[in-house]
Amino acid sequence: MTDAVTDTAPATASFHASDEATARLKKRRASETRLRLYGVIAIALAALALVALLWNIVSRTMNAATEHYIAIDATIEEDEDDFLGVVKKSARGAFPYVSGRSAKRELYSLFSDGAADDMRQAKEAGTLETGEAVPMRFLMSDTADLYMRGEFGALETRASEGALTIEEDGKKVILRAQSGAFADALGLAKAGLAREADSLRRQEARQAVGIATLEQRLPDLTGDERENTLAQMTYFKSEQARFAAEATALDALITGDRDTRLALSNRMASFFVAAHGGILKLTEVSAETALAIPLVPMQTTETAPGGAWSLHILDRPEIGRPVKDRQIAILETLKDEGRIERVANWKFFSLSDSTQPEIAGIKGALIGSLWTMLVTFVLAFPIGVSAAIYLEEFAPKNRFTDFIEVNINNLAAVPSIVFGLLGLAVFLNFFGVPRSSPLAGGLVLALMTLPTVIIAARAAIRAVPPSIRWAAMGIGASKTQTVFHHVLPLAMPGILTGTIIGMAQALGETAPLLMIGMVAFITAVPEGITDSATVLPVQIFNWANASERAFDMRTAAAIAVLLAFLVLMNAIAIILRKRFERRW
Amino acid sequence: MLSMTALIILILTVAGFFMARNRAVILGGETPALLHSRPVYHGGYVCARTAIAGFGVLIVGLILSNIAIRWALYSGLPGGLSEIERDLLVSDGVALASGALASRTDEARQAVATLYGYLSTIQVWGLALLSVCIAALVLARSLGQVAIPFRARNRFERIVQVMLIVSSAIAVLTTIGIVASLLGQTLVFFSDIPVWKFLFGTLWSPLSGVHDGTMDPEKVGAIPLFAGTVLITVIAMVVAVPVGLFSAIYLSDFASARARSIIKPMLEILAGIPTVVYGFFAAITVAPFLRDTGAAMGLSVSSESALAAGVVMGIMIIPFISSLSDDVINAVPQSLRDGSYGLGATKAETIRNVILPAALPGIMSAVLLGVSRAIGETMIVVMAAGQGANLTANPLEAVTTVTVQIVALITGDTEASTAAGPAFALGFTLFCITLIFNIWALRLVRKYREVYD
Description:
The complex is a heterodimer.
Chain A lengths: L1 H16 L1 H46 L1 E10 L7 H12 L6 H8 L8 H9 L7 E7 L2 H7 L7 E3 L5 E6 L2 E6 L5 H35 L5 H33 L6 E2 L6 E6 L2 E8 L3 E8 L12 E6 L10 H12 L3 E5 L2 H4 L12 H32 L4 H13 L4 H15 L7 H25 L3 H9 L4 H30 L2 H5 L20 H10 L5 H30 L4
Antiparallel strand pairs in A: 1-2, 1-11, 3-10, 4-5, 5-9, 6-8, 7-8, 7-10, 8-9
Helix pairs in contact in A: 2-19, 7-8, 11-14, 11-16, 11-18, 13-14, 14-16, 15-16, 16-19, 18-19
Chain B lengths: L1 H27 L10 H37 L7 H15 L9 H38 L7 H41 L2 H6 L22 H32 L2 H16 L2 H22 L9 H26 L2 H9 L4 H30 L2 H6 L17 H10 L4 H33 L5
């Protein structure tokens, strides 16, 4: 035996010290580092997702925190009712040079339909100043507001070196500038044309592919089908020719020399010239001359020296944005005059849903959520606690209680939308609970929250040591007295913590509420549990689906409010747990 | 009116409590120890009986009379109408009677409205009278029972017991309610349409060309929905399982207490975010990002791609997998780890060869529960996945899921009775599948649970 040991000792030593062993050890350590690295990467990914999500919400919410108003003078008659009319009249007064139906319509649509609401409220409160012209503040419409935030791209300003001569020609104005001041604009316009020509060529190529496919199919076809295919081919060919011709026409424009004036269209970038307090929009441009129409009139038509005028470019074509060139000119003028105010958007909390984003708020949804949560709590808390007490303290160990246990665990994992279907079939259709009411929503959410409450309450009751029960029984308390006078109060912090977490889940739940009609568009604030209502998460869903872009940031703001409530509830739960939960 | 009634019953209940308690106090007189039960139990007994009688009659009466009124309204309708027309007629009549907007007003609707107004007046007054009378009667009777030897505490405790049992039975009732309501509509749906056409058909367009609520059996094939659900679930699990599992391993065996105290709450925040927020994130940020990235690489990615919905759903499930796995990994006893270290194994080897095998059933069940969640998840896919039933395995294309179609059917413009059939059939399928996954997960844990010590 001893021999054997002495024999193998050097062998083990060499086994652990050889080059192979070192390599092996290195490999083992590398695999250790690798596993640790995977863990760090996984956590970093999760953190990245969380940060991206929250950053998304917060940055958009910041946008929704303010909104723009236009400050102009308004004269209000004593017995005025048509406040939208006042807004329009004031707008006409402030911009007397805007004439023509469509131009006026563009002017009016700078203002929100909600611009008149302040006046209406002031009248009701008796604080409206009437008779004389007073400075007023009118809410901007959503598209104008988005333009002010730079959502449609920012105006790019080009330096102006040479002098600009201005010559009126009927309604239009001929502009002349030396040293190719408009060459940049011409270049950009031509680049736009080139893009358009490219897209036409692609469409042409697509037609060609279509024709080729049809040609391949042609020999196999007979009768009507052949006729149809032939007709389709003819159509494709005519389209192909049309696209080709249009592209060639554009090519001719693009290759035109720099002194020929190129006609601008609303499919190209917009070019503005600001001079003498006015804003002109270019309609034709060459390197040194341009034809323009005044959107905001100039004070004089004298020659403007270099530096006293400027060229502005907005890259996105007029056709691709809801805010029009005339509106931009007016807004820029207002901005220069300092008549655009950016104001904190407190209205968001005092208004309810609306089709117009600038006057949409979350009050209705907040109150609806409040009512729904009330119903949920009133049902889920007592029932859940009672069930937990029974299962922990009274239930005999038999098949029925086993069945209940299995049921509760399964219910906790049933998809929420199934609870919605249950609510639709049972509460709405069978019991006749009013559709989209907080009562119906609260019933469904209570059933959903019940398993969470029961599981949490059972854990809290189980954590109360048996000595408490024995002591109570020892001084003659009945079983019910023991539970209600001694066990339940000690378990209460734990039960409340679980209930609050369950309520927080219910507050964020959306899918089951869609099933019971809470998705409806409701502008009224619910006054009871049987009124039609909407809730915060459903409001978020509705706004997220809305087509107006200005709803985006309001959706984010509503999410921020929802998250704030969830954080608050969870903080309360944590405080409860930290301060009142006893450990035995 | 009904809330007034409820208030009266409440007042009766409270009054009952004080009357019975005072009576017991008076009966006890100088020697309260003579009473079998303390006065407060006499009060509680009377109070509980009054409340049960009053509110019980009110609620049960309300439910029964609603059903009766509905039956009366339908049986009063002129004959020869389809089911949809009858529904519309009744709902319009009810709307007219309560002063709301109706789709149309005509003689038949007016008749329904008059009948409804008449019946609901009877219902409200009758119920109010009945429930208050019965509550008062019970109050008087149980007040008469107050006596020195009366075993009020035992009676009261029995009532409490029964209420506790009823409360815990609500969980069972909910399950029964789910199964019954889903099954009822589903069976109606399958009486017109063969089950196999639904389960194995490949064309889903149930509401196209529907007349009078009859659907074309060729157009209710749910395979594209199942395929879409599976595709999105697979993408979600590809994201969630590695990230969740590796973070659980890192948290339980590598992270310092300090790192743990930061990372765990972070994962909990991820778990607490409502799904509608994830949906917004998927639709507004992730989907356009993937589309633009794809375009930059020359791929055409749909703006409602399965990838976007799946990835965001995966993010949602990460904390679920990581917290459940963390629990099971922590449940592996330290002695096993120490044994492995004692043999000279590194941490990584211990995890791979000792801890993971021991924790595998728990981890598997976490994954199964995660899958069940992914299948049943609604808001993310409603907001970020497509509506059109598209049978494809390409994650860059738009697919639809079972839950998306349920929402589309129920919240769509189609007459509720028509859309309910396929919606509830899908709901029932969803319920069954998630139930199988849940039970499977529980079984797995129970069957392979290692018993230590």
